[in-house]
Amino acid sequence: MDERIIKYCQGILSKQEQDRLLKEAYNDPVLKSQIIDYQHVHSLLELAPEKADSLQGHEGYGNFKRLVDSQRRKVWLISFSRYAAILAIAFVSAWMLASYYFSGNITEKQELIAFQQELVVPSGQRAELTLPDGTKVWLNAGSKLSYPSFFEKERKVFLSGEGFFSVAKNEKVPFIVSTRTIDVKALGTQFNVFSYPESDYTSVYLQEGKVKAYFPSSETEGVELSPEQYLIQEGKQFKLSTMDPDDLLWREGIYTFKRQKLASIIKKLELYYDVKIIVKDKEILDYEYVGKFRQRDGVMEILRLIQRIHKFKINKDDDLNQIVLSK
């Protein structure tokens, strides 16, 4: 494999070398195929639950590099594909598509802008990717992000689930996150958006910079946020609330609950792990908990740890994909 591909994915290839690589790939089907294959596997590696920290991530990357240099490369790719079979994922390399832009063909460029890529993160996992404009995105479990292969007049993506965005600055072209209810506009900033289809609210937490949240039909009536402000949208109403910054630790695979009732915790566990949790004795829902849990531990282990504080019974039905809690 061309070492430039690996360096490009690591972000250590110079701009001139990047352009040269893309132009070469445009005319070289073999090189093009290698970039696409590597991008697929590189993205899937980010989803692996075993990646608990950066050290493990580097180890996984090293293993991958050795594998692609061996004759077992195709077998490994097939095996890994089976592991990630539950992904509804359609990746076409943004870098490869950008190479068409360098060709100067206006018709092809317009087609690329219209082409939507989609990343779906399965339950119990998370993903990280870089968009064509350099914006970095972290996606929580059960989330889906749709985005164009190339940004031009606007930078707009569609989110279902939860995502944290570190937006590349471009004062001329705002960055817009569109959800099922509201849009969030930013220039260069860092913020978190929570908008699962099963949830009865959408929320925005601003960590750095400035964003504006609004209904698509009435942008002028939107709400501008300042750093550390937390906005909740329910129905037609916006309201400011508070959010613990530790709630953003999901990007590192950690779920944090501080004096939250079990009812609230269950709602999030259902979203994150795609499972139905039924509570037979309603008083259980009022129990409050404080704790941090690793995403990779799984929903059953999290419930067992919570169970140690306030005793209740846990029964799981794998056929129905549901968990029943009772006293």
TrEMBL record:
Keyword Transmembrane: yes
InterPro entries hit by this protein: FecR (IPR006860), FecR_C (IPR032508), Ferrdict_sens_TM (IPR012373)
FecR protein domain boundaries: 119-212
Entry keyword annotation includes GTP-binding: no
Residue ranges crossing the lipid bilayer per the database entry: 75-102
A Pfam family that the UniProt record links to this protein: FecR_C
Organism domain of life: Bacteria
Protein FecR C-terminal domain ranges (all copies): 255-318
Name this protein carries in UniProt: Ferric-dicitrate binding protein FerR (Iron transport regulator)
Organism name: Parabacteroides faecis
